[in-house]
Amino acid sequence: MSTLADLDLKTIMSLTGIPAQKDLVNPKEPLEMAKKVRVTFRPLPDGYNNKEIIKFREALQQKLVECGVENLSWEESTEKPTGSFINRAIVGRRVKRNVHAVIDLKREYSIIRKAFSSFAEFVYGMMRDPERSVMGILKISGWADNFTARWLADPYNTQVVTLKSLDSEFIDKETPYDRKIVIGLQDLISTMSEIVIGISGDKFSIVNMNLSDSSYTHEEIDDFIKKSFIPKIYAPIKPPVLNRFIQSEYDPQSSEFVKRLAELGKELKKTDLFPHGSKFSDKIPRQSHRDVVEKILEGRTGVSYGFIALVESPGYEGKKLITPQKWAKLSEIKNVNKEYVREDSGGRWYIKSVIRGKTIYQQLPDIWICTSRSGSDKTNLDPKSDIVRVGLIKGKLYLQTPMGVDLKRRDIRPSFDTYVILAQALSCALYTPEIIEDGMPIVHFHGYPDPQWFSDNEYHIGAQNPSMPCGTIEAALLNFAGVYDIVNENGQTMNLLCLVESDHGVNILGPRTQYLVERLMEGSLSGDIMLGGRFLPELKKVGA
After folding, report:
1. What's the fold here for domain 242-312+371-543?
2. 318 neighbors 363 (Cβ within 8 angstroms)
3. Beta strand 447-449 pairing with 387-393
4. Long-range contacts made by residues 166-171, C-beta under 8 angstroms, separation at least 24?
5. The pTM is what?
6. Residue 61: HSE in the Cβ half-sphere, 13 Å Cα cutoff
7. What burial letters (b/e) apply to 225-240, b meaning 16+ CB within 10 Å?
8. Distance (Å, rounded) from C-alpha 511 to C-alpha 494?
9. How far apart are CA 183 and CA 212, in angstroms?
10. Is residue 277 helix, strand or coil?
């Protein structure tokens, strides 16, 4: 059974509230992911002659197969739709549900197609229904379009990858990150794609909703496919769904940690590490496209870049540590590996941990986290509406929203990174409890520090990991293991820990909020911390 840290993968998932998976793969093994992935390449349009993109497309296709990815022909991967004659005529062949990604090209619209597309959008506006499904939306608004999303039988399971010419401004080191966000969103939205790869004669870039600006030379394509592309296809961005949480309300005025989190956000404003989020209504001109994106993202009306969280002091009942003799008498827990986790007569869970060669038996604490809601302005949080409490108690998830806030509001959602935040918090509580006992801030932004920025008792890890998208189960597992590995290597004394997520950003956490804020401010002012991927290659070299 595959393991990370000192536990098997299923046990980590059980403890962190992550839903069970049929085909569980160690997230450090991208070639194992590849064996679970099926892709298809949409045929080239007649007369297409961009040689750079054609050459890259051929190399991508060949190397995916070499890595173990199943490459289906267009005929194998598509099927005729059922239903009325009109439905069959409009939709054409559909990509089957079991295909994980369709790789296509950016296709230009003729004047006639633009006119038909505008007419279809007008009709959709007249017939718009908030309860309509993604496929229902695309049947009305997308019949005249030529983007790949309209051919998908299941847009929740199949990602669209679009190849296009590289925008040199996007990979220019002098281009401000705010401008890169605009370019990246425009590329994703105009093609209705989850991933866009820009290609030139000597370089290529990749962008998804994480809005990374990573670029590669063509000589680096093998590493790119294994460490970046395959992980993104294997584990698409999917926000946590509300029905997995036991929901209730809390009074923000009565929580010390809520007040501390709001203050943390204000103090971080001067770092300029949190650009303004993007509302889909501002970036996506077509109402039908906005509705599709919001449906897929479980009601979210925009994206923001980063999060801040404050882990509350862990909750214990009774003894934190027990003897091996006491452990031997504890009861098994249904669907949890008894070699690692057991339950006492009072219902408390205990876990067997091996830290720096020493085995201990410790209580699994209750974890509560105050975190910025998805889409909020992290530097100006309103405790009455912008901060949610997320709980993790014996593997069950809890969500508390401020009193009086209606959960039907589409912008009140837990962070995309909820599983990652919980994994970090629980791992710290188990393996370095000193860092979390008085509350622990976590700051996540879409950039990286220079390796030279780190000082005594400050550590970083993760740059060499596969590039998992934000908030995925795999990202949570890697973060859990990252904390354990740092503690095992360096001990439990640390002032700051940086968990690196390639093509995404970093999570910086520590025991003292003011120290963390001051260090981030110093790094931002000196240019040693920057948004975007300028310092990611250096972190990878150091971590190699």
Report:
1. L-fuculose-1-phosphate Aldolase (3.40.225)
2. yes
3. unpaired
4. 166/198, 166/199, 166/200, 166/203, 166/204, 166/205, 167/198, 168/200, 170/198, 170/205, 170/207, 170/213, 171/198, 171/203, 171/205, 171/213, 171/215
5. 0.90
6. 17
7. bbbbbbbbbbbbbbbb
8. 8
9. 11
10. coil
- C-alpha neighbours within 13 Å on the C-beta side of residue 449: 28
Which tokens hold the place of 68? Answer: 């173990």
Token pair 């890169």 is at which residue?
180
Task: Give the pair of three-digit tokens for residue 141.
Answer: 């608004």
Block residue for tokens 């840290």: 5
Contacts of 285 (CB under 8 A, 6+ apart): none
Pairing between β-strand 94-95 and β-strand 78-79 as defined by DSSP bridges: antiparallel
Q: Give per-residue pLDDT as tens, 86-132.
A: 555 555 688 999 999 999 999 877 777 777 778 878 888 888 887 77
User: What tokens were used for 333?
Assistant: 């827990």
Amino acid sitting at position 102: V
pLDDT per 10-residue tile (average), the chain, 544 residues = 89 94 90 97 93 97 98 94 57 86 88 76 82 72 74 89 95 88 82 92 91 91 97 89 90 93 95 72 68 59 74 96 98 96 97 96 98 83 91 97 73 80 98 95 96 97 94 94 95 92 95 97 97 93 76
Give the model confidence (pLDDT) of 17-69 as tens digits.
998 888 789 999 999 999 999 999 999 999 999 999 999 999 999 999 999 99
Look at the alpha carbons of 436, 377, 206, 144 in this order and tell me if their dihedral is positive or negative: positive
CA distances from residue 373 to 304, 366, 417, 484 in whole angstroms, order as listed = 10, 21, 10, 27
Secondary structure string (H, E, C) spanning 333-396: CCCCCCCCEEECCCCCEEEEEEECCEEEEEECCEEEEEEECCCCCCCCCCCCCCEEEEEEECCE
Cα separation, 63 vs 69, in Å, equals 9
**CA angle centred on 306, ends 168 and 474, rounded to 5°:** 90
Residue type, 288: S
Q: Is beta strand 307-311 parallel, antiparallel or unpaired with respect to 302-303?
A: unpaired
- Which regions of the chain carry the CATH code 3.40.225? 242-312+371-543
CA distance 427 to 434: 12
Q: Nearest to residue 21, comparing CAs of 229, 210, 238, 228?
A: 238
Strand pairing partners for 368? 391
Tokens of 322: 């027990």
Locate 17 and state its tokens: 């509230």
Task: Give, as one character, the DSSP assignment of residue 331.
Answer: B
At CA 449, angle to CA 446 and CA 452, rounded to 5? 170
Q: Helix (H) and strand (E) counts for the chain?
A: 19, 28
